[in-house]
Amino acid sequence: MPVGIFRVCLVVLTAIVNHPLIFPRENGTVPENMEEIIQKMKEREETLRLEQLRLEQEIAEQEALQKALEKSAEVVKESKEEKVRWDMWTALSMVIFLLIELWRQDFQEGIWQDTGGEEDDMAVLGKAFKGVAFPDKAVLASFYEKRILGTTGDMARMREMVEGFADDLLEALRSVCNRDADMEVEDCMGVGSMYENWRVRKPFVCDLIVPFAPPEPYCFRSQTWCSGDSFPPDEQGYGTIKVCRADEDVTGCICDKTKLGEDMLCLLHSQANTTRPNSEMEDLLCFKNTQYLDADQVMKWFQIAVTKAWNRISHKYEFDLSFSLLDSPGALKIKFRSGKSIAFNLTPVVQYENSDVYFISHFPRSSLAADLPSSTHWFLTFAVYERRFIQLVSKTLPANACHVSCLQILSFLHGKQCSLTGPSGLTNYHLKTVMLHLLQARPSQDWAPEKLEARLQDMLKFLEKCLHEKKLYHFFIGNGKVPAELGFPIIFQRAEPLNLFRPFVLHRDVYRKTVDTFHEMLRNMTALINEYAVHIPLAQTNGIHKESF
């Protein structure tokens, strides 16, 4: 115990003795730069504090940026999901819309095709036609017998006379032409209302087409609007004709034996070597600086050739021959010494491949038809197939079928109305197209002669429907139901349907005039028919009844 106390006391004493403030050493001094050190330590501390604040601020900014990026990613993700949902709905809506549109078009195009033999299936006309008086069967029969048949009895003799003279004229034309340089003219063919036996309006005019071909070694290569290349809507129904050498391919190389790749050039038969002088192509009736057949050049050539041919054979005939229209290649008129005259059209055409479709140089124009895109665009005519279709269907119809009678009556009424109120956008070709559609849609027994009244109403209803919708489709183009017996080219059957009433959309004034003329024709129909249906007993004339179409 005493030893421990002693040790503690010794330690305390040692600490006291060694404390610098109590017993300072001789050389012990307080550093003079202590304040400077303290000041630097404070500055260091301040620097560290500022650095800490900067780091904290940067961390805060990084956290805010991270949150913003995460939020942006969420928004992008949500927008993508929303866009995907919207795209799905848009695609689904478009599919539904297209299906509805296709169904609507099919329904509009086929509503008359899908009908059976029921007369009630035709849609009721608009309000403007309610209460229209319609003659009964007896009045129609009397009108047709006295007005239509009474004026068409001489058509057969006129056709025979015109065809005989046209053959003689074309034979003379061949004799005056240079067989090595001029176009080769073939035999003519009769088309149109005079040869389909439904022409009713005077003067009677025969329409003859004359196919022609280039001299050897040249040939025609045609291209239509439905051959694959895109054509503007106003050029549908047209085509171009290129004059080529028979041994020349489409690309211009006449070497069939050399098999070249798409990126190879034939140096033997280059484009420069196959290019012919302009004078040579103009002799082949091509448009200037091109190889495309020019309709205006063809018209001038044909008129000169016909004039030379007539000068050679005029001494054989006791009548005069002249051109009735100078802007048509072969609008001819025969003038007899008695003062009577006969008009006929002799129109040059080019055959489309090996079919009976023809490119026609000049086509009768109407107020509805648009101008030709250029003189190198040729209109296609299906008149030969139309005549064959009528002949083919007529074999399956009852005796004395009323299809031609309906067309004749409708053509007469429309022509009479136009003579009173002026021309409209409707033509006889539109009326014939309506008949062709109904011939295909209606069963054969529906065209019995006693059903003339019902079928005439059908034609008027169908025509009114087409006018209302501004849609009347060409009978052959886009029609997959054309009888195979006709041998009709498949390329036109697979083409998009051609709307003959499309110009009505662009020319609203013509459309309004056409509709007004149609309405007026319906209102005047009974009066026009009764004007010519004379000598009918009163009991029968009272058969005119009011009927809402």
Question: Would you kindly provide a written description of the structure presented here, covering whatever features stand out?
Answer:
The protein is of the alpha+beta class and 549 residues long. The chain has a domain at 124-227 and 234-246 and 282-534: Beta Polymerase, domain 2, CATH 3.30.460. It has 16 helices and twelve strands. The strands form two sheets. Strands 2, 3, 4, 5, 6, 7, 8, 9, 10 and 11 form a ten-stranded mixed sheet that branches. Strands 1-12 form a two-stranded antiparallel ribbon. The chain is elongated. Mean pLDDT is 79; it is low at 23-28, 108-128, 256-260, 267-277 and 536-549.
Rg, alpha carbons: 46 Å
Number of strands: 12
Spans of 5+ residues with little confidence (pLDDT < 50)? 23-28, 108-128, 256-260, 267-277, 536-549
The number of helices is 16
Beginning-to-end CA distance, first to last residue: 144 Å
Beta-strand content bin: 5-15%
CATH topology of the domain at 124-227 and 234-246 and 282-534: Beta Polymerase, domain 2
Query: What is the CATH class designation of the domain at 124-227 and 234-246 and 282-534?
Result: Alpha Beta
Secondary-structure-based class equals alpha+beta
Tell me, briefly, the overall form. Answer: elongated
Mean pLDDT figure: 79
| Major sheet | 10 strands, mixed
CATH architecture of the domain at 124-227 and 234-246 and 282-534: 2-Layer Sandwich
Helix content: 40-55%
